[in-house]
Amino acid sequence: MAVLLVRDDREYLLQRGETLETDLGILEVPEDAQAGEVVTTHLDEAFTVRELRGPDCFAHFERTGAPMMPRDIGLVMGHTGASGGDRVLDAGTGTGVLSAYLGRAGANVVTYERDADFAEVARENMALAGVDDRVDVRVGDITDEIDDLTEEAFDVLTLDTEDAATVVARAPDLLAKGGFVAVYSPFVEQTREIVAAAREAGLSDVESLETIQREMDFDDRGSRPSTAGVGHTGYLTFARLE
């Protein structure tokens, strides 16, 4: 698994045994590097080793597009209860941040990405996160693969694709009893289609949430939410198979 080398406002993500080359010198990350350990370059410049956590995946993964934000991932994890031993079917891998979070929680993930180059980057990201043994990144369109997946009985279905409503309609064929669907969609029109598909499929507990997060500003005048922006990212729809 990769580690972070941290110094002031600098952070470098490397695998143990890799070599870091910077203007502060060269160092080889020890194979047995431990969190909190201080390592130095050949110029005797010090870096502190930090273990990789979920937010670090978001910050340091190689990106192939806009990844799902940590606040959205938190809602997916919280509303589905995805955890160790669960089988998760995901579509729209992208950078792979959601898959990495799920894998680090102990879930076994099968994730589909249409673009072969994006899928290869996602595999490299899973290796960095130390979850390549739990996250199976496949190239393909999930709508073409559904018939081959219907005997898997997944615990959670997560989607971030334009045709999510089509997959949601088949959720009863893909999920184990009591399993959850979680769909991220950037547009309200798409969200409406997803909700309709979930209801038509007979899923229960169907709900859609808009995710908005505002930072707080604190200064000598007082305290209030930041006026920098409303912090909208997208819509999340959840449903469950009885």
From TrEMBL:
Single GO MF annotation: methyltransferase activity
| InterPro entries per record | rRNA_Ade_Mease_Trfase_CS (IPR020596), SAM-dependent_MTases_sf (IPR029063), TRM61_C (IPR049470), tRNA_MeTrfase_Gcd14 (IPR014816)
Is Amino-acid biosynthesis among this UniProt entry's keywords? no
Q: Does the keyword Repeat apply?
A: no
Task: Look up the coiled coil feature and give its residue ranges.
Answer: none
List, for all copies, the residue spans of the domain called tRNA (adenine(58)-N(1))-methyltransferase catalytic subunit TRM61 C-terminal: 71-217
Q: Enumerate the SUPFAM superfamilies for this protein.
A: S-adenosyl-L-methionine-dependent methyltransferases (SSF53335)
Alphabetical keyword list: Methyltransferase, S-adenosyl-L-methionine, Transferase, tRNA processing
Q: Which domain of life is it from?
A: Archaea
Which PANTHER family is this protein grouped with? TRNA (ADENINE(58)-N(1))-METHYLTRANSFERASE, TRNA (ADENINE(58)-N(1))-METHYLTRANSFERASE, MITOCHONDRIAL
In Swiss-Prot or TrEMBL terms, this protein is called Methyltransferase domain-containing protein
Native species of this protein? Halorientalis brevis
